[in-house]
## 1
Amino acid sequence: MLLQFFKALAHESRLRLLGLIAAREHSVQELAALVALKEPTVSHHLAMLREAGLVSLRQDGNTHWYGLEHKTLSRLSRSLLARDQLEALAGTKPPRSSDDRMLQNYLTEDGRLKAFPATLKKRRPILRWLARHFEEGRTYSEAEVNETIERRHHDRETFRRELIAHKMLARKDGSYWRLPESGWVG
Amino acid sequence: MLLQFFKALAHESRLRLLGLIAAREHSVQELAALVALKEPTVSHHLAMLREAGLVSLRQDGNTHWYGLEHKTLSRLSRSLLARDQLEALAGTKPPRSSDDRMLQNYLTEDGRLKAFPATLKKRRPILRWLARHFEEGRTYSEAEVNETIERRHHDRETFRRELIAHKMLARKDGSYWRLPESGWVG
DNA sequence: TGTCTAATTAGATAGTTGTCGAATTAATGG
DNA sequence: CCATTAATTCGACAACTATCTAATTAGACA
């Protein structure tokens, strides 16, 4: 979603169009004249802005009036300020394996866990996903481990315990580190 | 430079990189491994993010640590909320004055300075251009001034001095701020 | 000095996106 | 229905961007 938003605004013509629309509603013809592009081109840009939820369409007769969607703009710009939100972007990889597709059902838009299923079969890919958020070859304090987990789910105790039980994380003298995937249980 | 900001974020790889960097500082190698791209590619993306002021570079030995620039992010996302700002986008026209055309010869495609001419007559429009990259109504630390200059030219000392000599920038107690254009010398 | 490592820059290529003219759809009114 | 007007969709081409490998730069160290 966020990517679509940025793509929509990452072109001078579209920024200009949005600027005009922000001032008041405009028809396609008007916009084409104002930005010196042909109507099909403008139509194409407007479709992208609309797809991103930035403008809305009101039809009267056969002229189309495009107006600004304030809500989208304020919602998205606000979400940029939330640090967690931003970090969640890192996990935006296209899902491939069936595990990944399964996982998708348990993740929110912003890369947090919605729930933790009861069956072991479903829990394993989730733990793998979580374990991969730890870097290999460094140690973590317990506080850091908790922090890393809590960025994805509030129940740090359960997940810390499970990660260790599945040999994804190891602990010694209060220090933690990630174990190689080859040895993971599950 | 709102367009630059959006362009920088309008690509999945760069969003991912920014997400990783938001969590903590990373080196180019780390990032390349994490997003599964080659180092030159990552380097290229980082340059764009840096150009947009979204990340900063801290060099230690010969590894480069990239970190998040919270300020830029919050400043720009806030400016999206300001309606006026948005409407102003409509007026983004290509430059045409004779100064602007002169300036064009000294700028690279990506908006950096190729050279700094010897004659005062030619130097003035360049300094004006540079000074406009500072915001009015806020103060900058010396580090921030350097960073802003270096985004356009490596010789921060010369330009900092010249900006002050032409009364475009003022300094007091180690803080800098932009002066109104009406008072600029040249 | 020479070597090693990390990063950047250059150059090539493949993929994506912006723009246009032509053809098509949709609404309105004789 | 047919003509008119506004908008969208289609197909082609040009411009731009992402990515790679190879070459270069810069720091550390011995």
## 2
Amino acid sequence: MHIEIILKHVYVKQVTKRIVKNSLKRIFLYRACLVRLKLMGVEKVFSYTLADETGVTSDQVRKDFSEFNIRGNKRGGYDINDLLDNMEKLFHRNKDNNIVLIGMGNLGLALSKYSKFVQRHMNIVATFDIDPFKHKIRSGIPVYSMNRLKEIIDRFRVKVAILAVPEISAQEVTDELIRQGITGIVNFAPVLLKVPPEVIINNVNLCDELESVIYYVHLQNKDNGLKNLELLYKDMKY
Amino acid sequence: MHIEIILKHVYVKQVTKRIVKNSLKRIFLYRACLVRLKLMGVEKVFSYTLADETGVTSDQVRKDFSEFNIRGNKRGGYDINDLLDNMEKLFHRNKDNNIVLIGMGNLGLALSKYSKFVQRHMNIVATFDIDPFKHKIRSGIPVYSMNRLKEIIDRFRVKVAILAVPEISAQEVTDELIRQGITGIVNFAPVLLKVPPEVIINNVNLCDELESVIYYVHLQNKDNGLKNLELLYKDMKY
DNA sequence: CTTTATATGTGAAACTTCTCACATAAATGC
DNA sequence: GCATTTATGTGAGAAGTTTCACATATAAAG
């Protein structure tokens, strides 16, 4: 009997889907542009304006909008406020979203202070840490012990959590979060979490992000690097 | 004359390519698994072991290895150490990679303390901030003023930078980094940076990561949500 | 009010990525 | 040492994504 057969039975089947399809990622990209253009006083955009700004083709922009049922005005282009409204609705930004943050280490602390979340109607209502020395208000948001998790999740109807705990406890904490009703997690621990299929996991691996840049920078420095790079580069970064 | 025509001339064409193709992202995924399995004392894996662990199909695993010229043993599977060696080479982890970090706000500080970078041979040799009050050693890494950037980049032959500055100064700092020889940037500012085509940009947008989870959680809660979700979910998260 | 110019929206074609299926190689058993 | 089993590696086919091209709508101009 091989060891892999044992492994099969020890582990629950991994469910790590790609939660963000490319077209949705591009919507984020377009929105970033639109916000900037709006600040500059622009009121109307055309598919090729956004295309130029984001490095996507104008066909792609229109197809993407079409997919999410965002429509413009033939010959007249798109109204920036209309577009932004549509996107707000898409991301449910009309209502506030309550979030919990688990793990108040360096990264957790930084995330709890990240002001952009609030600007985008995502409120971290409480943070949690097993270390009792961290149980005080830092950065204006209370830090609780894990045994108050259920209470807070219920009171604020929290569905989404940010996980910034050490990798060693990530799975354990995830299991507890799901037991208490969390259905979506942004995971900063460099671990592949095992979760039931209905739970949404979005992994953000800081090392991987850096390493992939290093990979392409090295590739670029090779003699025939640029050709190789162009090949790998033919798609857009969303 | 329409405003978009003006815009075309004001802005340099955006070059934001997708720097990480899916197969490469999956390689990171496989490696995360392999590291864990190795810690558990496993020495050999088969494509379907990795497949089960990562939620990818076994065909995909083999195809991916094939693409990066990583080969196993027919009938014998893959040796974990061999695989990891291959991946180290792929990411140039045999040699050390010197990195600079710009912006020592909350996030920058957290990143400068992130121990995983060092474990993976990515050394932040110096950090920079415009605020002179931050010019002291925090977290063991020196904090310099921006006018020492060139000196440090040259001395440590730095090619890659982490950008954790406010969005307002992100473009300006980027221009300076590129002038001083940086060719790869992990950008945490929620801005689409304009860079020459040979410069690698990897954007990490924390709000977008959270919002995309919220998007799918809401989708799931709708009546017919699950069907929709399954459709969007058919691909894997790499 | 009619004409013209131009930007959208979308099927169809081209291209890319993934899955399937099987030939091939190597370990195991007899 | 031969037969058998089983996992890899890879063309071929399927599925998905992007680009193309044009019909359609509408703003602007005459």
